[in-house]
Design goal:
Chain A: This is ATP synthase subunit c. The complex is a heterodimer of chains A (about 80) and B (about 260). Chain A is mainly alpha-helical. Chain A has four helices and no strands. In chain A, helix 1 packs antiparallel against helix 4 and helix 2 packs antiparallel against helix 3. The radius of gyration of chain A is 19 Å and the shape is rod-shaped. The model of chain A has no long low-confidence stretch (mean pLDDT about 95). Chain B has about 260 residues and is mostly helical. Chain B is about 80% helix and about 0% strand. Chain B has 13 helices and no strands. The longest helix of chain B has 20 residues. The radius of gyration of chain B is 22 Å and the shape is elongated. The model of chain B has no long low-confidence stretch (mean pLDDT about 95). Classes of the chains: A mainly alpha (about 80), B mainly alpha (about 260). At the A-B interface, helix 1, helix 2, helix 3 and helix 4 of A face helix 1, helix 10, helix 11, helix 12 and helix 13 of B.
Chain lengths: ~80, ~260
């Protein structure tokens, strides 16, 4: 007999996996930033420091939803409110 | 007491011989794996378009343009081939048929293995873009061909990372399945195997993004060959950042497989 708790745990495992699909977005966005950074440095080598700083700052912002996905996955795994 | 749908479904599944259920799951997994084919199609199509454009603009350089295009497109094929390998393993050399353990767990692992390699779609798209940009750059500045090709190849190699990670998870589920020997409710083990595979699909993003970065770096190198090392440095830094969500996905997948809190 499948108990309710077992079913919740099973669905939580799948939910945690689904949450990680969020990683698609930051990966694309940060890669775009990296590409533009490389382009900018090629064009204006002396501005490399500024280019790098700006790129990383923007990438950090783009990272947020990936982290949200990870947080939700971790909540489902380790601090599940339904168990 | 009336049986609920979930219980009925699993009773129905378990009324069959294990081999039958695992075969059903394997064909589904093989089908999922081939979704990856979207990636090389898009990526290589882009590269071909850029190749045709470049040859049109600079017919006398068609030889080096075409060789760059083909080299880049060949790499973009990688993920498609890896997905094909997983699908063929599931169909013809299936290690899960005859595996010990609950049939639901084994079946879920087969589907999870197929779903995991869908991540390879991303690297293929990204690598195709890189191939296209490198081809374009060689057409514009043929003398930079060597540097451009090198930057393209290195960038494409990095972009392949999440595809490789997904393949590793897929192969673990197929050949070194940790769930088969675990104690615990079969429904939790099966769902965890599925979850581990699904998590890897997030790797689509880093692959696309890193490939884009590689393409832009190749383009920049074509324009300013003297700045190749600076350009490459920025490309690597950006690609490392873009990799983070792929690593997150891997972490969740590994937690579900080896450090599962539900058991």
């Amino acid at each position: 007999m499948i108990t309710g708790i077992e079913l919740i745990k099973a669905c939580s495992a799948i939910g945690a996996g689904l949450a990680m699909i969020a990683g698609i977005g930051p990966g694309i966005g940060q890669g775009y930033a990296a590409g533009k950074g490389a382009e900018a440095v090629g064009r204006q080598p002396e501005a490399q420091g500024d280019v790098t700083r700006t790129m990383l700052l923007g990438a950090a912002v783009a990272e947020t939803t990936g982290i949200y996905g990870l947080i939700v996955a971790m909540i489902l795994l380790f601090a599940n409110p339904f168990i | 007491m009336e049986t609920n749908f979930i219980q009925w479904f699993f009773d129905f599944i378990m009324s069959y011989e294990p081999k039958v259920i695992i075969a059903c799951a394997s064909v589904i997994g093989a089908g999922f794996a081939m979704i990856t084919g979207i990636g090389p199609g898009i990526g290589q199509g882009y590269a071909a378009g850029k190749g045709a454009e470049a040859v049109g603009n600079s017919p006398k350089d068609s030889k080096s343009i075409i060789s760059t295009m083909l080299l880049g497109a060949a790499i973009a094929e990688t993920s498609g081939i890896l997905a094909l390998v997983v699908a063929l393993i599931l169909l013809f050399g299936n290690p899960l048929i005859g595996a010990s353990g609950s049939m639901v767990v084994i079946a879920s692992s087969a589907i999870g293995a197929g779903i995991a390699v869908i991540a390879g779609m991303g690297p293929a798209i990204g690598q195709g873009y890189a191939a296209g940009k490198a081809t374009e750059a060689v057409g514009i500045n043929p003398r930079s061909s060597k540097g451009v090709t090198l930057v393209m190849l290195v960038g494409q190699a990095v972009a392949q990372t999440t595809g490789i990670l997904a393949l590793v998870i897929s192969l673990i589920l197929l050949y070194g399945n940790p769930f088969a020997s675990m104690e615990g409710a079969f429904i939790i083990l099966g769902a965890s195997a599925l979850g581990a595979g699904i998590a890897m699909v997030g790797g689509i993003g880093p692959g696309i993004g890193q490939g884009y970065a590689a393409g832009k770096a190749a383009e920049a190198t074509g324009k300013r060959p003297d700045q190749q090392s600076n350009i490459t440095k920025i490309m690597f830094l950006g690609q490392a950042v873009a990799q983070t969500t792929g690593i997150y996905a891997l972490i969740v997948s590994l937690i579900l497989m080896y450090s599962n809190p539900f058991l």
